[in-house]
Specification:
The chain has four helices and no strands. By secondary structure, it is mainly alpha-helical. The protein has one domain: Up-down Bundle (Substrate Binding Domain Of Dnak, Chain:A, Domain 2), CATH 1.20.1270. 24% of the residues are buried.
Length: 115
């Protein structure tokens, strides 16, 4: 009986230690971070904050996954969400800047047309 319990305990520990890396979640969080960087999230203060949070969470999730912690999936999902938010904020800032420029251009055209 004692041998059986020891065997089960050893199998249980081995099972916990060999949890697979969440490959899909890792790829998704890294892709979202790259996307946020590509749309210029570093140049927008609010977006940069969320981008840095995503990078921190991505690193934390990788460490947790390497340690076999099943909660790594949740941390990586949060990293992906923060990176997506950074991407959205950066895009919104770019659209806003473009709209302001268009408004200024329109005012300049109207000013030239009306002496």
């Amino acid at each position: 009986m004692k041998t059986l319990l020891m065997s089960l305990a050893a199998l249980g520990l081995a099972g916990c230690a060999s949890a697979p890396m969440p490959a899909v979640e890792l790829q998704r969080s890294e892709a979202s971070i790259r996307g946020a960087e590509e749309v210029g999230a570093r140049g927008v203060p609010d977006a940069r904050l969320h981008l840095e949070m995503a990078k921190d969470q991505d690193a934390r999730g990788k460490k947790m996954a390497a340690a076999g912690d099943a909660r790594a999936v949740l941390v990586l999902a949060r990293a992906e969400s923060d990176a997506e938010l950074a991407m959205g904020i950066a895009r919104e800032a770019a659209v806003h800047a473009s709209a302001l420029k268009a408004t200024e251009d329109l005012k300049a055209i109207r000013a030239r047309g009306n002496p």
